[in-house]
Write a structure and sequence with these properties.
About 35% of the residues lie in helices and about 20% in strands. It is α+β, with helices and mostly antiparallel strands. Strands 13, 14, 15, 16, 17, 18, 19, 20, 21, 22 and 23 form an eleven-stranded antiparallel β-sheet that branches. Strands 1, 2, 4, 5, 6, 7 and 8 form a seven-stranded mixed β-sheet that branches.
Length: about 675
Amino acid sequence: MTLKPSKRRKGRSRHSRKKQITSAILTEEGIMIKAKPSSPYTYANRMADKRSRSSIDNISRTSFQSNSDNNSIFETASLISCVTCLSDTDTIDRSETSTTDTSKDDLSANPKLHYPSVNGQLPANTVIPYGRILDARYIEKEPLHYYDANSSPSSPLSSSMSNISEKCDLDELQSSQKKERKGNSLSRGSNSSSSLLTSRSPFTKLVEVIFARPRRHDVVPKRVSLYIDYKPHSSSHLKEEDDLVEEILKRSYKNTRRNKSIFVIINPFGGKGKAKKLFMTKAKPLLLASRCSIEVVYTKYPGHAIEIAREMDIDKYDTIACASGDGIPHEVINGLYQRPDHVKAFNNIAITEIPCGSGNAMSVSCHWTNNPSYSTLCLIKSIETRIDLMCCSQPSYAREHPKLSFLSQTYGLIAETDINTEFIRWMGPARFELGVAFNIIQKKKYPCEIYVKYAAKSKNELKNHYLEHKNKGSLEFQHITMNKDNEDCDNYNYENEYETENEDEDEDADADDEDSHLISRDLADSSADQIKEEDFKIKYPLDEGIPSDWERLDPNISNNLGIFYTGKMPYVAADTKFFPAALPSDGTMDMVITDARTSLTRMAPILLGLDKGSHVLQPEVLHSKILAYKIIPKLGNGLFSVDGEKFPLEPLQVEIMPRLCKTLLRNGRYVDTDFDSM
């Protein structure tokens, strides 16, 4: 009997805590919680804040819009993240994480979801970075049962407010406040709190913000109600009541598309059978919180994603998210390539990965992480960017349809290790290390002929090429962002005191002229980024022989081949930075070759440097930038591995296909490999 009152008191305490509303202001970095005013009622709270000063601002460095991000690429929970989120509860109702198997789920018409509130839990001067804000909306009717967290919850006014029914209107509440002030000697607390409703600045709006907050090793959606001070926008085409939320969303989705329409393809067999559960629990809540429309389908057998991509309605979606490893993106790209309207498909749809498989190289390279929740946040915030693909041709399928590759092709030691150790996949990454060690000890050779069209043959030429195109890509990205930033040339003054402005009579006309100029310029940039049918044309058909300007690799090396690896992305696995000089759209692919006769003492530093990318600096490693190549194996049995998929052992010809595919890149670039400082 004695436990029930205790439970009720505890429940009321949590309920009261969640109904606090804090004041905040907009800053350049995000929404900052305002410091509480000095009063006897808030002294204890201020002391408590000092003891729990684990601010979200500490995590703002991981904002997906920062251009100077020096964090680790694997953004799991830091100590600060853990301390910040010790009291967090489940992100979403358990019914939303059901893993009942269906072939197709339409999540676009979900009822309104309610995310856990953190009202009153954010210390003063906390900054919620724009890069973590998922959504914002006005609270249409001011909830009368809330009180301002900047005033004392123990003040007489707050006590009276807690006893007022939620159904009473604002006039009744103000009437009760007047009676309270007349009969109560503690007028200081009453005056402090009554300013919430009677003396608040006309530039203050009540807004609910949903943002991604670190919780253990993930990020989860949370909501907070804030009274936000802002300066009304001076532009005539925006209504005053739309300015604040619109500005928050503009800053939160800078250079990226809001409310994406996402076609999710899940491989339920990926990630040791956990891919579906990972998506439902780690990715789906974030996507729904950001108001993305989602449709989910599941693959049933190898190659099924090719059929799905070939037959899908491309007019309904702008993004395909592969909740899997690297095999499903490979199938999706080739399924779109086989469509009669493949030009439209590659112009309209961005292809990305939510890492739910065993090989997540695309996510690590493009989203800088192999954590599903952080990768999903990156998907929501990242920039659509065009990347190069590679076109593969072999006699068995070239006439019907060549194959596209987004990641890599390999022959020799790495290919056999990758494919032939599938039966011990349960060992995780250790299977690869074990297979490589076994083949090196055997000194197994893979004789072949290799013909290459070089773009940068020597390591010095490669370094110059890398620096030139990396800087060129950065300048192009800055040009794009500047064009989009110019749309928001009228800025807010976020200081507590507002300055009056003298408006010109012609200001609106000038703004309209500038807006029309910017729109036309953006349309021109957009049309220039479109690909055409001629971009799919193969420059070096397989049946026309080897071009005269290609060079043959020294037979002394090719007849004693150990590793042959070509690729377009820096990472080929979560912990293997095989191509540190890879760039998204430099019009080349990287080639790495080793000699099987290399001694074990010299192979050791090569293998130990794979996680850092320093293996390419070893003198025994050939590292070049190339435009195309042809490899002709001399062995009777073996295989090629293309994007981790098994290809037949027959002559393979590959050429670069510039800027063919749209994907989502964090900050518009691949993860930083530090190659320029090696």
